[in-house]
Amino acid sequence: MLVIDKEGGDAPTAAGSQKMVLKNPKGTRDFDQKQMAIREKVFRTIIDCFEMHGAETIDTPVFELKETLTNKYGEDSKLIYDLADQGGEILSLRYDLTVPFARYLAMNKISNIKRYHIGKVYRRDQPSTARGRFREFFQCDFDIAGQYDCMLSDAECLLILVQILQKLDIGKFSVKVNHRQVLDAMMEVCGVEKDKFRTICSSIDKLDKTPWDEVRAEMVGQKGLDPAVADRIQTYVVMKSQGDANAFIDQLRNDPLLSKSPTGLEALDQMRQLMSLCGCYGISEFVSFDLSLARGLDYYTGTIFEATLQGEGNAAESVGSIAGGGRYDDLVGSFDPKVSRSGKIPCVGVSVGIERIFAVMEAKLLKEKEKVRTTKTQVYVASAQKNLMEERAKLCRDLYLAGIKTEQSFKMNPKMLDQLQYCESYGIPFALVLGESEIQNKVVKLRDITTRAEELIPRDSLIETIRRKLQETQ
Predict the structure, then answer these.
(1) What are the Cα distances from residue 261, in Å, to 50, 183, 226?
(2) DSSP 200-263
(3) Which helix (H) or strand (E) holds 31?
(4) Is 340 exposed, middle or buried (0-12, 13-18, 19+ CB in 10 A)?
(5) Span 383-399, mean pLDDT?
(6) What is the DSSP string of 409-455?
(7) Coil, strand or helix: which one is 191?
(8) Are strands 287-289 and 347-353 parallel, antiparallel or unpaired?
(9) Is 285 helix (H, G, I), strand (E, B) or coil?
């Protein structure tokens, strides 16, 4: 026998029984009605933005063959959830939506698509509820695959990211951008051995939340980097554009060391084009070229970007990165040798971290004590007298057929006060009140829940009147 103990304290158990404590697995959470209403609003805002830019949607399984995910995430590969061997395929839960997308393109021989995907991913990370970091969480991805002219699709991803964060209205934010080839050139001229590029990138990627001294200690002590090389890296990773991106790019092009790297100079030209397009889209004030941005995932090959909230001692300050992305031109080819031989399928995308955004929105609503509607009911059918259950049902039928979101009490003879209080509690804008006189005269009493104003509406014009009233309240 299992004894369920909701409080987690001692509970009497029978001999030989096992006590069961009800709780969520570590790094997961439940969402109540108000929290789900907020999440649905966020999802709708993000989807509307994706669709405004012409994206189609797909879905992939939450688990993949383990070999599909292997060697794609660098040092973060240790965070992948492996599933127990069931005597068949060796599987793992997906770590992100990008690698499954690349597998989908290779498997289905797709070379051009603009897609969005919203789904759960799983990471064996150290969870932190306050920072919106969980082991199971949603990602909202937008990606463009195909051969296109330089930086147009990259700039589109940055525009979408800025538009989403503006529409969500969660506070001031900034978007850092960099280029993987600029990073590689920087490490090359600083003296980093080529086989250490990716692992040193993983260390640099921690600079947004870890002081330089600790990052340097990791590079030198754990990864065997020469201290002098680490010090040369420091002179670059503190550099970022301060308003004038072109002047910053000119500074890097004229750097005595970086100017000797052909690939670095080519990447800087691409960054100039990207920043110019950001100006055309009117988003330059949000975007800065920052050499400290590294993003540790192995599959990035070009531009990389990351959005953070600029908090002021509140929840926004603690959540860290809320979105990120970049270019990954070789990932599809890693699944299909024919693609590698015939040419690449370039891809670039952005991923919005819904849980971290939700943590900020939840804290904001709690602070402002804003009331959140958890239903979308437009009309409540109420009865003012007894024995009108069937009349309520008929009226509900007419409203449902007209596509009007409707509720009624499940009691045969509900009290009028209880029905009206229900409307107020759930934010239902209108109530239709039935009584014997209304039925005899073929009218319905329409009550505005907010103003408490009432009027009699003929039954034959009721649907038209309700639609007009609902449109006026929007």
Answers:
(1) 37, 11, 21
(2) HHHHHGGGGTS-HHHHHHIIIIIT---HHHHHHHHHHHT-B--S-HHHHHHHHHT-TTGGG-HH
(3) none
(4) middle
(5) 97
(6) -SSSS--HHHHHHHHHHHT--EEEEE-HHHHHTTEEEEEETTT--EE
(7) coil
(8) unpaired
(9) helix
Contact present, 321 and 356 (Cβ < 8 Å) = yes
Take residue 22 and report the two structure tokens written for it.
């009800």
Q: Which residues contact 443 (CB under 8 A, 6 or more apart)?
A: 456, 457, 458, 459
Residues 6+ apart with CB under 8 A from 116: 47, 50, 51, 55, 56, 57, 140, 141, 142, 143
Strand partners, 408: 381
Q: What is the DSSP code string of 95-149? A: S-SHHHHHHHHHHTT---EEEEEEEEEE-----BTTTTB-SEEEEEEEEEES--S
Q: How many residues does the chain have?
A: 474
Q: Is 81 exposed, middle or buried (0-12, 13-18, 19+ CB in 10 A)?
A: middle
Segment 120-156, tens digit of pLDDT? 999 998 888 777 789 999 999 999 999 998 899 999 9
d(CA 277, CA 274): 5
Q: Which of 82, 9, 45 is nearest to 170 (CA)?
A: 45
What's the chain's average pLDDT? Answer: 90
3-state secondary structure of 20: strand
Q: At what angle do helices 33-52 and 354-368 cross, to 10 degrees?
A: 120
> Is the per-residue pLDDT at 11 higher than 60?
no
pLDDT-derived band at 319, boundaries 50, 70, 90: low
Taking only the tens place, the pLDDT of each residue in 231-275 is 999 989 888 887 789 999 999 999 999 999 999 999 999 999 999
